[in-house]
Design goal:
By secondary structure, this protein is α/β, with parallel strands linked by helices. It is built from twelve helices and 14 strands. Strand 12, helix 10 and strand 13 form a beta-alpha-beta unit.
Length: about 350
């Protein structure tokens, strides 16, 4: 059982989260508190595997508590915040201070919204528990609810797609631990790198601030993607939270399509959707990278990319916070090269150079 402690100043939110988590047979809520001050005394008497933490609370805000607990007694923390633009910069800080996952607060809504909230919340807790242990064996025994494949958004490549001799394009997928991984990877790329499209599992609205932060840190330009954005040299397009992103092309020009759709592999955006679109519209011109994250989102799409001639790279187990996504891609034989996080940029640059040579 994964033991969870909830800290939120709203009694209704605490009860809603408790009810959602209690519906999963592998999760047990062992306590709640209305703010971090009350939580400290309770945490002395119990040892949770995961803490669910709000940001805006009386007496002590969630970020201060997060920083304090990571310094004194590190416990995997999932930030559960309202999806407001005002909080988005704080969410970026939360990842910096050590939060494992960020999710949107569940609220009363449609049946579909509540079901998606349940999936995201339970998955976030399970991802956080794995991040502490850092062993993929824990993931293997977890109960995973039924999930849709990329077929729900885009049909699989047939192998008969029209071939073009256009420039290389890079697609990336990441989840748990991916925010810091992307910072290091993108920060080490030159300005003349071919266009990049990336999926990082994050809630709606938070991706804009994340992209802005990356843009300030990196030589390449980084922005949250909007529909029909062109894929350009030196530009990284980050999929917006709660939207799928697809790589498309018109003649020799790549662009992105941002669209709604069902959860795929329990996520929206889904790495599998992006990778499948790269297999269909870029083929051997593509370079795919799969990074740290729970589950198997992206593994199937990476295999489709490999079959169409793309070069595929996976982050290694040692540098992955959770080895689920890259580990599953490797297990399926979808990966051409396994690299430590600090070496992925060199592997991508080499692969891009090979694509350019092949295309001339």
């Amino acid at each position: 059982m994964i033991k969870v402690f909830i800290i939120d100043d709203s009694a209704l939110v605490r009860q809603t989260i408790k009810d959602i988590l209690s519906s999963d047979s592998e999760i047990e809520v062992i306590g709640t508190a209305s703010d971090p001050i009350f939580a400290v005394s309770k945490l002395k008497k119990t040892e949770p595997d995961v803490i669910i933490l709000d940001i805006q609370m009386p007496h002590m805000d969630g970020l201060t508590f997060l920083k304090k607990i990571m310094q004194e007694n590190p416990i995997p923390v999932v930030i559960c915040s309202s999806h407001t633009l005002e909080n988005s910069k704080e969410i970026v800080k939360a990842f910096k201070y050590g939060a494992v996952e960020v999710i949107t607060k569940p609220k009363i809504g449609t049946k579909q919204f509540l079901e998606e909230s349940r999936i995201r919340l339970t998955d976030a807790v399970k991802a956080a528990s794995i991040a502490e242990i850092k062993k993929i064996e824990t993931f293997a025994g977890m109960v995973i609810a039924p999930k849709l494949t990329a077929d729900a958004v885009l049909s699989a490549p047939t192998g008969r797609e029209k071939k073009y001799s256009s420039a290389p394009v890079i697609v990336i997928g990441a989840s748990t631990g991916g925010t810091e991984a992307l910072k290091l990877f993108l920060g080490s790329l030159p300005r003349n790198i071919p266009g990049i499209v990336a999926v990082q599992h994050m809630p709606e609205h938070f991706t804009a601030s994340f992209a802005e932060q990356l843009d300030n840190l990196c030589s390449v330009r980084v922005k949250e993607a909007v529909n029909y954005d062109p894929v350009q040299t030196g530009l990284v397009l980050i999929a917006p939270g709660n939207k799928h992103i697809l790589l498309k092309r018109h003649n020799e020009t790549y662009y992105v399509e941002v669209k709604d759709g069902p959860l795929v592999n329990r996520h929206r955006p889904s790495v599998d959707v992006l990778f499948r679109s790269a297999a269909r519209y870029a083929g051997s011109n593509a370079v795919g990278v799969i990074m740290t994250g729970m589950g198997d989102d992206g593994a199937r799409g990476m295999m489709e990319m490999k079959k169409t001639g793309a070069f595929t790279i996976a982050q290694d187990e040692t540098t992955s916070i959770v080895f689920g996504m890259p580990g599953e891609a490797i297990k399926r034989g979808a990966v051409d090269k396994i690299a430590a996080l600090q070496d992925i940029s060199d592997a991508v640059i080499e692969a891009v150079q090979n694509r350019q040579i092949l295309d001339t």
